[in-house]
Design brief:
By secondary structure, the protein is an alpha+beta fold. The chain folds into two domains: 199 residues, Lambda Exonuclease, Chain A, CATH 3.90.320.10; 95 residues, no CATH class. It is 39% helix and 14% strand. A five-stranded mixed β-sheet has the order 1-4-5-6-7. The chain has a two-stranded antiparallel ribbon with strand order 2-3. A two-stranded antiparallel sheet has the order 8-9. The N and C termini lie far apart (62 Å). The N terminus is likely disordered.
Length: 325
């Protein structure tokens, strides 16, 4: 069996299903660098939001709705699965799908289930990321997550049940793909050995990663600019000009909408709300300047130093004056 019944789930010691899409650069929520930080024990922000909490809360409902719509029996399996050759690779399966009156395990100790179920909630405004119901046309991070679970369990199919809204419940199907599983296994083992075991961070893939990787500057340290980076920087003036033109056009469009609405609160098109323009609820803020002026002896006791993040400032004027490469 692939199961370790005494297993204690610790995400810092294993690569799991939600990590696979991230280390491949397919996740919108995490980067390879953030996965690495978690695995090597760096302090990382706790991922907590209403969508995440709702997704966890709704898992039971989604599993029951799937069972009702398909006539299947679903079973929980609290313990994660481990890869038999690489015990640092793991996966926690939401549910398994069984034939009626079949136990999850046979007398030989092997898994009876051939189909697994993954339960998701999705933003109803992101429906264009999902294809036709019943296909495997799902966001890539979910596709590789399901493929990862098929790799670990030996199941031949994963059903992905997705709750968009009370009137939109969908079931997608991902079939076993040995070539994809082979690729995922190679990338996961590679990531673990090249980055986690050696405590070597993977390359950053966005500017937020750079801020995580290099949070502090060394005072008075300077380096000479590479020609390849200079070539990139020379693109900035033109890009900034394009961005400014886009912002101006956006402002013009908003102005046209406001002029049409005038004092109306809602703009409709064929009875549907296209835009609203109204005052938000009043908000309040602490007037620190007034407090300091009126109570100078107290204000200093409540001031706390804030460690600001590094700011990148590029001298556009110097780039424009440079001779072409």
């Amino acid at each position: 069996m692939l199961i370790n019944q005494d297993f204690t789930w610790d995400r810092t010691k294993y690569l799991g299903g939600s990590d696979i899409g991230a280390i491949l650069g397919l996740s919108r929520f995490r980067t390879p660098l953030q996965v690495w930080q978690e695995k090597v024990g760096h302090e990382v922000p706790i991922r907590d939001s209403m969508p995440l909490r709702f997704g966890s809360f709704a898992e039971e409902f989604i599993a029951l709705e799937y069972a009702k719509q398909t006539g299947s029996t679903v079973a929980e399996h609290p313990e994660p699965f481990l890869h038999p050759e690489h015990p640092f690779l793991a996966g926690h399966i939401d549910r398994f799908v069984l034939e009626p009156n079949y136990p999850l395990y046979g007398e030989d100790g092997n898994l009876n289930a051939k189909v697994l179920l993954e339960c998701k909630t999705a933003n109803p405004f992101a429906k264009d990321e999902w294809g036709e119901i019943g296909t495997d046309e799902v966001p890539m991070s979910y596709l590789v997550q399901c493929a990862w679970y098929l790799l670990l369990t030996g199941c031949y199919r994963a059903d992905l049940a997705v709750f968009f809204s009370s009137s939109d419940f969908r079931i997608y199907t991902i079939h076993k793909d040995l070539e994809l599983e082979k690729l995922l296994l190679m990338k996961a083992v590679q990531f673990w050995h090249a980055h986690v075991l050696t405590n070597t961070p993977p390359p950053p893939i966005n500017d937020a990663d750079c801020k995580l990787l290099y949070p502090k500057a060394t005072a008075s340290k300077s380096i000479e600019l590479k020609d390849s980076t200079l070539a990139l920087l020379k693109e900035l003036p033109g890009l900034n000009q394009t961005a400014q033109e886009c912002e101006e056009r956006i402002s013009q469009i908003k102005q046209a909408v406001m002029q049409e609405m005038q004092d109306a609160e809602t703009l409709l098109w064929q009875g549907k709300t296209i835009a609203t323009w109204k005052q938000p609820k009043p908000s309040f803020k602490f007037d620190s300047k007034k407090f300091t002026d009126e109570h100078p002896d107290l204000s200093g006791q409540y001031q706390v130093a804030i460690a600001n993040s590094r700011r990148l400032i590029i001298k556009d004027s110097l780039l424009i004056k440079q001779e072409p490469l």
